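Protein entry
_____________
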Amino acid sequence: MFKMRPYEPSRDARQVYALWQSALGHLWPLPYRIFEAVTTAIPAYQQGDHFVMVSDEQIVGWVATQLKQGVATIQLGGGFTYFWQGVPINLPAAWSFFQVCGWQDNERGFDLSRDMADYATPSWVYERLRAGITVVQAVPGDADAILAFEERHFPEWLFYFQRVLRYQRYADIVVAKDARQGIVGSALVEDPRSPLYDMRWTMLLGENTGGIGTLGVAESMREQGIGLALAARVSELLWQRRLEKSYLGWMWLIDWYGKLGYKVWQE
């Protein structure tokens, strides 16, 4: 007989993690610390968000959610933190299941990666920036301007920049500055040596994997090459730090990042 009940981390975490590794570990193995980080060690987590299905005290099923009251629609994947942005293409039976349950496919996202051994930014990436725009690592004096920029243009990313600044990891923030307007773009460097690093798929990509984190340009300054210059500068820093791979999650701009040598890793 099956019974569903709320997930209790202290009681269930190890058994649910073992279930994950048994059911999905052949394609999507996870370190335990990442499993914990995504499921409960986040500000968005509330008791009762996740559920387990139990048979004779043995957990045989599990579902993780991020719940908010009064929503009009729900989605598979994504959220404040996530394992995937949707249903992985290499789990075809999973998508068939959700289709039968009435879910609709409304977009396709991509994860990209690049070997960093031969990374070099094409010269035209910086040459096409107009006069007065520079792309540099942040310094302590930029902190207030960075937070103001995120709050104004990308409030959904403000938390990530607050966290990096709280740890004073200024070198893990790259900013685009305009001589007249100040900060007009920003990006985060994902470095495995950072205490904030939570790369999910290092068991597949390798432990020495970094990445380009959240990246955005003020709407009025787009289509001027600033975004690609930010991505290039982050990639250079990953190369300088002797990281073997760079990873990008939840992307649509395949050809855009392809200009820097990034290729589709998963869909």
Summary: Residues 111-266 form a domain with the Aminopeptidase fold (CATH 3.40.630.30). The longest helix spans residues 9-24.
